[in-house]
Amino acid sequence: MKSFVKIRRSVILISLVILLDCTIISIADESEEMLILGSALTKLSAAVESTVRYKNPPTNINDAELLALATKHDPTLLKPFANYTVRVLRQNRHAIILICTGDGKNALMEDAGCTSKLDEHLWEIHSAKSCEFTLTVSKVCKVN
Hints:
Layout: H1 2-54, H2 63-70, E1 85-91, E2 94-100, E3 107-112, H3 137-140
Antiparallel strand pairs: 1-2, 2-3
Helix pairs in contact: 1-2
């Protein structure tokens, strides 16, 4: 009987270790994916910033049209975001890009084109944030 209890405890312990290991690997994979996406976002936001700042796109252009115009020289800049919702905020000739889940419900990351680093790692916040901008141009960009 004692050996059965020991075996049972061992099986439970091994199961917990495997489950924990799989969870850690899953979290690591997600973080790596988000960091790669973040790197791609800084390139996209720089292209959109340049377009908004120097090419004077029409004010009534929608997000998809602005993204297409900004990436006309390199359409592959949009490829990493094919399964995500991409939103653009334009203020004072600057641009902020917000990446959300494909269903548009949760914000994942946000970047102002006027900065060189990824500005907001929203996926790291454990409570889901709605797909709304948290940055403003006046807080992150030199407005002139």
